[in-house]
Amino acid sequence: MTQPVPFPPARSSAEAHGSRRRPGKGWAGKGGAGHGWVWAAGIIGAGIPAGLLWWLLAPGGQNLISGNSALSPGTNSEGWLPRDLVLAGLFVFAGCLVAVLLSGRRDGGTRRLLLLSVAASAAAAVLAWQTGVLAGRLLGGPQDTSANGSVAFSLRSLTVLVLWPAAAAAGFFVLRIIGLLRASVDQEQDGGA
Fold first, then answer.
1. Nearest CA-CA partner of 170 in 118, 123, 107
2. Which of 68, 88, 90, 193 lies at a 20 to 30 A Cα distance from 161?
3. Where are the alpha helices (DSSP H) in 59-110?
4. Whole-prediction pTM value?
């Protein structure tokens, strides 16, 4: 019978860099998450192209996904759900991409960087939403929103905003579990040889 393989302990940010923690270096210093703010700014900045892409792809915007001209005007309520779903799909993809990139970083196992990534993903989701709405106002035609505010290019379900940070956290968790399982299998194979 083989003995269970102990899981490696979670690394602190100082251990991830292979250095001792220096007082006063916090989140952005070399003793902390190291370039964590640059990483977070990159995630937040991704919200702008995501919002523009939402406007280009979704009904009520340029409607490039369906191409159905009946869904193009905002007065057609059948286009409101697909408009939200396009943004939801973009957010899930972006969150998974953040998780993959974070797990591939040498210092990606730190809790601080994970929390910073999730917070930046939440900010990026809000920025993407507002960018898409602004693109709809500036690049789309004028809309009469007296009957319903959703006639203009907008987001009806604000819960969609949670998908980017949730996908980043869940994706990182899944990748971390897969990495731990692979490490335990490798240790068992090395121990049995």
1. 118
2. 68
3. 80-104
4. 0.79
